[in-house]
Design a protein that fits this description.
By secondary structure, the chain is mainly alpha-helical. The protein contains 25 helices and four strands. It has one domain. The strands form two sheets. A two-stranded antiparallel ribbon has the order 1-2.
Length: about 625
């Protein structure tokens, strides 16, 4: 092992000050963007915060060290990835919408309308003044808020324990390469070394992103002038006469375009294939040639439906079970492919108890295991006390699956950069139980191992930049706390300005309707999760993923098994935009600038585009606040 003395502190008072100031700007903008178009500022805001911080510190004669820049960049990326759905209070507002929505009253459990089964610890009683006062600081929201806060704290305790366990196991003992962590390390080195050519590319991209943001964000939402509709250009009216039910469009939000610049061509091709096979041809084929297998989809489709409605109906009537099957298939193939690494990782984890984890400053292994079991078991007990859901099922889910998914995902991301995700896992678990109530479906015990693989990738970058590992852990904790606090204040302000959902936050208009209908269909078991369909799609998905991987490895075709499964879960507007941007990046721009130089610069360009876009979003929010500030006053 390398000597701990080589690692330098990065979590200093300067880094903390930058994080607090950056969060005050980024969190409201990112939450607003998520309700506006369903996206976040993600890495772009992190990059611009790091650049501005390094420049200002240099101007004052106190330049940030390589380690401080790393902490600022990674913790800012955690903060910038915040969205409204990541703030527990957002779901309190949603439950209030849910119990007042006339559609949900049409669904019953044992003869009782679902809204009457929503307990007061999830949403205020129906006669509460909280429904028209529109503020999070209402006495009837205190208990729901406490429930979300406790569950969030238990989740972060378990995830941090797994982060440190996996960091020690996969970085100290197993030493997996974590290829994507080298990109983060390169960006930090760029900021530390301040190479003029990279700064030039970044500023050019920032200007382009800002100009685009003016047309799609500023003019429509500040001046009321719309040139480009958000979040997509709906092309289904053009395709409906030929392929009814097919979902087609082009994303107009800049996020998939900027992200597509850094996506490998084989991944973008596979994402496009998976998306078109599902939401395009799949919707059309099931509607036209298999209506007897999917009668609800055939009866609910109507000519003239747009992307949002087609997505809602086909998702719940056709693709719910197949998506779970394909996700299981990907997990299965990844586990088989990395079986030796996973088995070795488990063996290493137990063997590591005899090795001093303090070699990098981590707490002892037994302390980390104690943190993990505290977070998972306490959440299971709280969930049981609130919902009455069977304890043994929750324990298997929270403890067993956390380790399985965490190890499989970390092994996959450590060797390939891709991770494993299983959608609707809790809902499927409840579906096959005999539970008959509402709360147990929408509140779940902690499932750790979902964020820790990505955080372990960050920790790998900490090793590359020789930053003390525990400094990254401290920064993540600060980022989480600050994001939650600022998120609550931001949501309260947005809610005071305009109802949620409303035209002021257009993404919530169709997203909340989709979630409300989905919840109602699930809790009444109106969505068919056929075990045969689930196993059939899992088998088909495993064959496709394995075939794509074999074609890539042995035939050198631009295909990716994980990319195909991602495409199955990605709407065609985003998939098409990612593919176009990736194709331009990996063909035309690689030739213009040279492959080696463009590979070095494309992440800088993507960050610049999103940084400019994010700046316009921030100024648009300020303008929106000024324009609508009179709404807060009685006169």
């Amino acid at each position: 092992m390398e000597n701990l003395k080589r690692f330098q502190p990065g979590f200093t008072w300067k880094a903390l000050l930058v994080l607090l100031l950056g969060a005050a700007i980024v969190v409201p903008a990112s939450i607003y963007l998520s309700m506006l178009a369903g996206g976040t500022l993600a890495g772009s805001a992190a990059f611009i915060i790091a650049i501005l911080a390094s420049q200002i510190a240099l101007m004052f004669g106190q330049p940030l060290s390589r380690q401080e820049l790393f902490i600022v960049y990674e913790a800012s990326s955690v903060i910038a990835a915040a969205n409204a759905a990541g703030i527990g209070f957002y779901w309190i507002i949603f439950r209030m919408f849910y119990v007042k929505n006339p559609i949900t009253w049409a669904y019953e459990i044992d003869g009782v309308p679902i809204p009457l089964r929503v307990p007061t610890w999830l949403a205020p009683p129906l006669g509460s003044s909280a429904y028209y006062e529109r503020t999070l600081f209402h006495s009837d929201l205190l208990v729901p808020a406490l429930i979300y806060i406790v569950l969030s704290l238990l989740y972060i305790v378990a995830e941090l324990a797994m982060l440190m366990l996996f960091s020690f196991t996969f970085l100290e003992v197993e030493r997996l390469p974590f290829p994507f962590s080298r990109i983060d390390a390169m960006l930090v080195d760029t900021l530390a070394e301040r190479k003029p050519d990279r700064v030039k590319f970044f500023m050019a991209a920032l200007t382009a992103g800002a100009l685009y943001g003016i047309f799609v964000i500023a003019l429509p939402y500040v001046a009321g002038i719309t040139f480009i509709p958000l979040p997509w250009l709906d092309l289904t009216p053009l395709t409906e006469p030929y392929t009814p039910g097919a979902l087609l469009g082009i994303a107009t939000d800049l996020t998939p375009w900027a992200g597509g610049l850094v996506v490998p061509l084989e991944a973008s091709v596979s994402i496009l294939i998976g998306s078109l096979a599902t939401w395009g041809f799949g919707n059309w084929l099931t509607l036209e040639y298999a209506p007897s297998f999917f009668p609800e989809w055939a009866s609910e489709f109507r000519p003239g439906m747009g992307i949002a409605l087609i997505w809602q109906r086909s998702m719940f009537r056709v693709w719910f079970a197949p998506q779970i099957g394909f996700a299981f298939a990907l997990a299965l193939v990844m586990i088989v492919r990395f079986r030796k690494s996973i088995v070795k990782a488990f063996a290493t984890m137990f063997r590591a108890m005899k090795v001093p984890s303090e070699s990098r400053g981590y707490p002892p292994i037994l302390v980390l295991l104690g943190m993990f079991f505290t977070g998972t078991v306490a959440s299971v007990l709280l969930h049981w006390a609130l919902t009455g859901f069977p304890l043994w099922i929750s324990l298997l889910y929270s403890i067993g699956l956390s380790f399985l998914i965490g190890v499989a995902s970390t092994a996959a991301i450590g060797e390939t950069g891709f991770t494993v995700s299983l959608p609707y896992l809790w809902h499927t678990t409840v579906y096959f139980s005999d539970y008959r109530d509402y709360p147990g479906w929408v509140i779940m015990p902690v499932l750790a191992g979902t964020q820790s693989p990505g955080l372990t990738n960050m920790m790998s970058a900490a090793y590359l930049t020789e930053t003390k590992p525990m400094d990254l852990v401290k920064a993540i904790i600060v980022a989480f706390v600050v994001t939650q606090l600022l998120g609550i204040l931001s949501l309260d302000l947005f809610w005071r300005i305009a109802p949620i959902p409303s035209s002021a936050y257009p993404f919530t208009l169709f997203d909340w309707a989709r979630i409300a209908i989905g919840d109602s269909l699930l809790v009444t078991r109106s969505i068919r999760i056929d075990p045969l369909l689930l196993s059939a799609t899992a088998g088909l998905g495993a064959l496709i993923v394995a075939g794509f991987e074999a074609a890539r490895l042995y035939l050198n075709l631009p295909l990716s098994g994980p990319g195909f499964v991602v495409g199955v879960m990605t709407l065609t507007p985003s998939a098409i935009s990612v593919f176009i941007a990736s194709a331009i990046s990996n063909t035309a721009l690689s030739r213009v600038f040279g492959r080696e130089r463009w590979n070095e610069m494309r992440s800088v360009v993507a960050a610049g585009l999103m940084a400019g876009y994010g700046i316009v979003v921030g100024f648009s929010i300020a303008g929106l606040f000024l324009a609508r500030s009179s709404w807060l006053w009685p006169w």
